[in-house]
């Protein structure tokens, strides 16, 4: 595992103090957009990942942050890359036991909040490999929140999914709608939501964001990192390959399913604001849907 510290002193964070935030899944699609955003907002980011390829990608992101600040004549953060034999590569997040996460939190005290992006994220893969999803999404999250409580870290922002809602819903979806998760991926995300909510009895405070279909780019290698339908289409165009549309009998004008696409920069903006709000002392735990409220059919998207 790699941990990078990005100290954001003098970056103008408008809060009472510069918070220290641990970000899991920091080298993934959303995380790689979020880290530069938070660092620029004045958040002291503690970033970690477990994959060697993603470690290199994370190094690139951190270097880009520093290059941007140098170009803008702004404060250049001190980057402390820690490679620990006790926190080295593991095949899945479940391998990060309470002991290992405790070590991580203790070595980086004080941690004011955790933004939990880590885990496995593909509906189709979860159907053929459910064990991976229960390990990486449920058991790992349990280990994380247990270790948070053991180290007096009481704030968590959990990034969940709108996949927990019924697929046949038309129009806007309220947070009050009863979840009906169908795939192991959706089930494990909802179970983790319930786990976090149950831990309120221990003083854990949470913001849960249920994301719709995240898309967009910020200039890094998003065609390799992002795996949404838009990046699939772009990669097929780049390689001059055909796109196979699965399903054209939906009750929509062109027969294809309708999705709510939200730009990743809007997602990171929402996460940043939600994290800042979460750290305010009188804020209660909340759950929000995060989308645009506007649907686009796959047929429209392809055209």
Can you characterise this structure?
With about 300 residues, the chain is α/β, with parallel strands linked by helices. α1 (about 30-40) links the parallel β2 (about 20-25) and β3. Helix content is about 40%, strand content about 20%. The model is unreliable at about 1-5, about 10-15 and about 70-95 (pLDDT under 50). The chain is built from ten helices and eleven strands. The longest helix has 21 residues, at about 130-150. The termini are far apart. It has an eight-stranded mixed sheet with strand order 4-1-3-2-5-6-7-10, with helices on both faces. The chain has a three-stranded mixed sheet with strand order 8-9-11.
In short, what is this structure?
The protein is of the alpha/beta class. Helices cover 39% and strands 18% of the residues. The chain is built from ten helices and eleven strands.
Instruction: Please tally the β strands and state the result.
Output: 11
Order of strands side by side in the largest beta sheet?
4-1-3-2-5-6-7-10
Q: In terms of per-residue confidence, which ranges show pLDDT below 50 for 5 or more consecutive residues?
A: 1-5, 8-16, 71-95
Radius of gyration based on Cα positions: 19 Å
Assess the beta-strand content as a share of residues. 15-25%
- Give the distance, in angstroms, between the N- and C-terminal Cα atoms: 42 Å
